Amino acid sequence: MRQALNSGFQFAKAGVRLKNRSVLAPLTHNMSDSHGNPSPAELDWLEHCANGGFGLLIAAATQVWPGGRCWQGQPALMTDLQQQAYSRFAEATRAHGALALVQLHHGGVRAAPALNGTAPVGPSSEAPDSRYPLGVTELDEDAIQQLIGAFVTAAERAYRAGLDGVELHAAHYYLLCNFLNPVLNRRTDRWGGSVENRTRILIEIIRGIRQQLPRQFLVGVRLSPENYANVVGIELQNQLAVANLLAAEDIDYVHFSMGDSFKLANGKNTALLSEVINALTGKTTLMMAGNIRDGEAAERVLSAGADLVAIGTSALGNPDWIYKVTNGVPLVTPPFADTLLQAHGFNEAGITYLGAVPGLVVISKPKT
Ligand SMILES: Cc1cc2nc3c(=O)[nH]c(=O)nc-3n(C[C@H](O)[C@H](O)[C@H](O)COP(=O)(O)O)c2cc1C
Predict the structure, then answer these.
(1) Staple 183 to which of 154, 205, 233, 314, CB 3.0 to 4.6 Å?
(2) Is residue 80 part of a domain?
(3) Could you tell me if 217 and 152 are in contact, meaning their C-beta atoms sit under 8 angstroms apart?
(4) Which residues form the NADH:flavin oxidoreductase/NADH oxidase N-terminal domain (predicted)?
């Protein structure tokens, strides 16, 4: 028995309980159609994870506004048809005693011009270069208001679909993260400058959702704690200040996309995990993701003070992750056989997409 992992968790303000502390991290799969209509395959995959025992499932980054698409097969939640698909996700998850969230997303400076037919948008304009071939168009006041409305409308759709809540994707250099980032956000109006101003768009979305929906509907925010890979402008002190502002709002959790939950903070001799936990303990529920692959790693993160652990890579090969780590059944480790992923619901588009991530998939079937 994994002690902390298998203890239930209560979202106090919402009065909603999780049967355990394991969370399916949001995982883009590229299995929706080119209009963002979720496919039976992706719903099958999510159902496998619900059946496998995760307490909470967060469906992949989902488009809320036309110009924000990042992947050919990215799901969207903008139409009645798409809402119906999410109803199936909600029902299947509930049937297994778990809770279902969807991650609401706009690609911001990372939105793909080829999919959107336009230059990406962001808090400030960027000149065309190798990174932004069409440049980046600065959002005006009217467009910012429309975007806030789009996130709130998608949350209302999630609620009507029967989902238990939404996660706002403010990590990984996408739109909401772009606003938090002083390198990308050089505005001098009320949406830029101070950390309060840069966080305003997120807070307006949170308040908008709270005005529309009952309090048991969960609202969480995903943040990157610091720079990763070659990104710039995401600094720990800024992100902790943002998280503190969010914790003072009526939210249910902050989810840190750590990359590696066991790394040192950039340029420091202290663990990133303890930096985050020390700054926020007692202020909001803390969910951590990143290199939490087995039960021991999960228990380490929980005993350091996190409330919930989100499992990404390992879930792909082990939708029954919590069952396995609880019962001492060996986990399948990456690279995962394509046939295994198929058995978990993945279709060819999904396997091709995951196959492009180094070390994740072994393609066993020769193409005919
Ligand atoms: C294939 C793949 C797709 C992902 N898609 C998303 C996504 O849609 N939204 C998001 O916030 N993070 C996404 N991530 C990041 C994961 O949620 C997670 O934070 C990351 O994989 C680290 O956790 P892990 O070491 O358990 O994999 C993705 C990661 C992978 C490998």
Answers:
(1) 233
(2) yes
(3) no
(4) 16-330
CATH number for position 247: 3.20.20.70
Amino acid (one-letter) located at 8: G
Assign 76 to helix, strand or coil: strand
Count up the domains in the chain and report the number: 1
Residue 357 falls within a domain, yes or no? no
Amino acid type, 173? Y
Amino acid at 157: R
Q: Which of 29, 253, 313 maximizes ligand 1 atoms within 8 Å of its Cβ, making it the mutation to test the pocket?
A: 313
Distance CA 69, CA 86 (A): 18
Q: Are strands 16-18 and 9-11 parallel, antiparallel or unpaired?
A: antiparallel
99 closest CA partner among 325, 292, 299, 287: 287
C-alpha 27 – ligand 1 centre gap (Å)? 5
- Classify residue 323: in a domain, yes or no: yes
Residue from 22, 24, 28 to probe ligand 1 pocket by mutation (most atoms less than 8 Å from CB): 28
Q: Mind listing the pLDDT tens digit for each residue in 262-321?
A: 999 999 999 999 999 999 999 999 999 999 999 999 999 999 999 999 999 999 999 999
Is residue 208 very low, low, confident or very high in pLDDT (cuts 50, 70, 90)? very high
